[in-house]
Amino acid sequence: MAWQAAKMFFLYFLTGCAAGWLIDFCRVRLTALEAGDDFVLQGEKMPESSSWRLLLTAAVTGALFVLAGVFYLPQNELYCCWLFLSCLLLQALIDYDCQLLLDKVSLLLAATGFFYSWYFQKNLTDLFIGLIAGAGIMFALYWLSRGGMGLGDVKLTAVLGIWLGLDKLLLCLLTAFVVGGIAGTLFLLTGRKKRRDAIAFGPFLCLGAAVALLWGNGLLSCYWQLFIFD
Predict the structure, then answer these.
(1) DSSP, residue by residue, 132-179
(2) What is the pTM of this model?
(3) Which of 229, 205, 220, 228 lies closest to 87 in space, CA to CA?
(4) Using alpha carbons only, what angle is made at residue 84 by residues 81 and 86, rounded to the nearest 5 degrees?
(5) How does 195-224 read in b/e, with b if 16+ C-beta sit within 10 Å?
(6) In the 8-state DSSP scheme, what is residue 75?
């Protein structure tokens, strides 16, 4: 039995590595295509694929696929989660390179998120609450930051609300802001970034969404246990 499980997870890892190769290819191609429409990217050196970057992307994707396989049975729900994690990684890599979150990828996530919530979660109410909450919270932050946060972050957070629902979305945002704050402090202390330099928030949003999807139920259960008294 243990040998069968090991073979299954190894297959998951190989599938993730193949998906990681595709993600790296899409990262380069989509960024190049976006440069033709976005004057901010015009004239800048476009990110290229490299062997170490390809290997790292493949390894990370393989690990994510294995983690998803731990929490979800090998059925259609698992495949939807793989797509979700793959799109998150693609958005994170492009935003890290160019500080740009692609609407094309967010629309794909939105469409699959509606199907996922309708077919597997059977809870459209939580879907719409998550969508409205995600858009509302991030739009308020976008307006208050006066350009410090982009509309791409607003759109992506709204889409994450479709997938995660309200509770897991709040966990996602908490994780993103905490990890983003720590990373920003480290960047300043090490001199990699200056006070006025922009730091892409998309990768932290994607990290928070992955944490919420994979460990959200356990973390939320532990949280609510704090309010249960014998």
Answers:
(1) HHHHHHHHHHHHHHTTSS-HHHHHHHHHHHHHHHHHHHHHHHHHHHHH
(2) 0.90
(3) 205
(4) 110
(5) eeeebbbbbbbbbbbbbbbbbbeebeeeee
(6) T
The amino acid at residue 172 is C
Token digits of residue 58: 């493949």
pLDDT mean for each 10 residues of the chain (230 residues): 82 96 92 64 57 93 95 84 96 92 94 87 83 93 81 94 93 95 87 76 95 91 71
Q: How far is CA 204 from CA 11, 122, 208, in A?
A: 28, 28, 6
Using alpha carbons, select from 210, 129, 116 the residue that is nearest to residue 171. 210
What's the alpha-carbon Rg for the chain, to the nearest Å? 18
